[in-house]
DNA sequence: GTGAAGCTGACCGCAGGCTGACGGGGCGGG
DNA sequence: CCCGCCCCGTCAGCCTGCGGTCAGCTTCAC
């Protein structure tokens, strides 16, 4: 699979590169939008990984112009946590998926695989979890058929559990995921969000491991 | 193999880097703990080389917090000869091995190789121990397929035995591991926890060495 | 047999977790 | 520009079961 990475953070970029190449894909890596345009003009890509903040412009308009120009390659957005509105805008602009920094590299591989599969003709993968149906791609969730609306933070939280089903998540890990680690939070935010999630999705979905963290219930 | 080197001595660091890269591994080198945290947030490593005296903090608490956050990557401590107590504390805090400075570079290669062999590549290493399957990463333990829930303290204790299978752990060492230095405990807490563990996991898993301590049974 | 070391059932104190309530602030609509 | 809505961070009070303590028993060395 030919992949174009547009990312100006050299540390993250190198990590992503190593992972992707390790997965056996071929990768081109650029740090600026105009370089990305050059590459796209001469080569076809099966997947584009797009950071939203580049030195010569923002990713959203770029993506929009790409789609306007008829490019249909799947796009995965790489975004920091505090850019939630951008993320949603990005999906509306035609992105296929997004990854919240910092993300696990194995997660990246999984998303790439899922995008590849989706483009191979398979329909959106829907995870079933008891009475819940979760569509990660369209970010909707059904409880016995009825759509349950989740707020942004709730979704980020819940997504973690669905993505790594048997992982035990410590509060610290979840906090790190919810808050780009310059913003500091005290008090029991995670507990509150978990409580709110349980209220919406039913108890038993997220289980407490006292003194250690949370994990998905049932199986 | 992806390796993170945390070492502020530039001479030693460069030597280590050359050796590791020469061995065909990929290396990230940082000189401060906060940089290490940044790297760990975005990338997964197969091995961490940790100096104990960094400009922005000491390595032991860093290691402790790493383990508390659920990171299970193997850690080799690099330490000067006069820090013997730190060394022991480090092993109790969850390090896998240590090297005393100045060390031979070939020795470093050997240790890395042994760690690599031990971790054999799988992202979620599952240790099998008789009828027990232990997944350190997700903190789950199965007894003939059935999940056995452990409490926080029980897990910390058991983890010690699994991480260093043939080590003899004295009660003092285990206490040190369970209680972060400030909290003091009298009475036979360790014995009680071992008892509770045996009840859950079956007798014969942890053996008593009278007057010395405990160690893993069977093989 | 004697003493020391280790084991384990029982007992609660309290840390850790849950949740209802409140309020600040951001956003959209009028 | 104001009003109202909703998201979410904070707090307080309640509740649960973890785990430290103890006592009485068993095991082991000599």
Main interface pair? A-B, 25 and 23 residues
Q: Proportion of β residues of chain A?
A: 15-25%
Q: What is the number of domains of chain A? A: 2
In the CATH classification, which architecture of the largest domain in chain A applies?
3-Layer(aba) Sandwich
- Cα-atom radius of gyration of chain A: 18 Å
Distance between the first and last residues' Cα of chain A? 33 Å
Q: Which oligomeric form is depicted?
A: homodimer
What is the averaged pLDDT score of chain A?
77
- Catalogue the unreliable spans of chain A: none
Structural class of chain A: alpha/beta
The CATH class of the largest domain in chain A: Alpha Beta
Order of helices and strands of chain A: EHEHEEEHEHEHEEEEHHHEE
Largest sheet composition of chain A: 5 strands, parallel
SS elements, strand count of chain A: 13
Amount of helix of chain A:
40-55%
CATH superfamily of the largest domain in chain A, by name, is Response regulator
The number of helical segments of chain A is 8
* CATH fold naming of the largest domain in chain A: Rossmann fold
- Basic shape of chain A: elongated
| Strand adjacency order, main sheet of chain A | 2-1-3-6-7
